[in-house]
Amino acid sequence: MLRFYREYTTLDTAGGKVPQPVAQLPWSHNALLIERVKDVTARFWYAEQIKNEAWSRDTLIQMIKSNAFERQGSAVSNFNKRLPKKQSNLVQQTLKDPYVFDFITLSEPFKERELETELLKHLEKFLIELGGGFSFVGRQYHVESQ
Q1: Which residue range forms the structural domain that includes residue 53?
Q2: What is the count of structural domains for the chain?
Q3: Residue 105 belongs to some domain of the structure
Q4: What does the angle CA 143 – CA 123 – CA 48 come to, to the nearest 5 degrees?
Q5: pLDDT of 78-115, one tens digit each?
Q6: Closest among 46, 65, 129 to 94, alpha carbons compared
Q7: Burial class of residue 22 (count of CB atoms within 10 Å of its CB; 0-12, 13-18, 19+)
Q8: pTM over 0.90
Q9: Taking CA atoms, which of 16, 36, 85, 101 is between 20 and 30 Å from 74?
């Protein structure tokens, strides 16, 4: 608790209060963030993600290990030229570069079907890596455009 106090009272905050969303997180999440994320900007980004995405402690650990803060929104695209600003920002926040597939144990060369099977074995981890707004509808689900 002393470390928590020292970490957040040294920041320039209004009235010396613990900044939002840190004050809304479970103690174990805060302790983990203080221990593993030294950069305050990154720590607040993770705290915001915990709040918005309802990350469990295990999910937070996985995201910190995979450097989610450094990877978020860094995929090369032309969305800012082709989409309105609000939509462009949303898409940029959704895409990461690269996605981490280190949970898949395939050796090259491999077939697409093998990759699909491995991804389905680890679907929960995969959906967590993609972030909010994704769901599993079915294997080889046909989508028609209008």
Answers
A1: 1-65
A2: 1
A3: no
A4: 95
A5: 777 888 887 876 776 666 555 667 777 888 888 888 88
A6: 129
A7: buried
A8: no
A9: 36
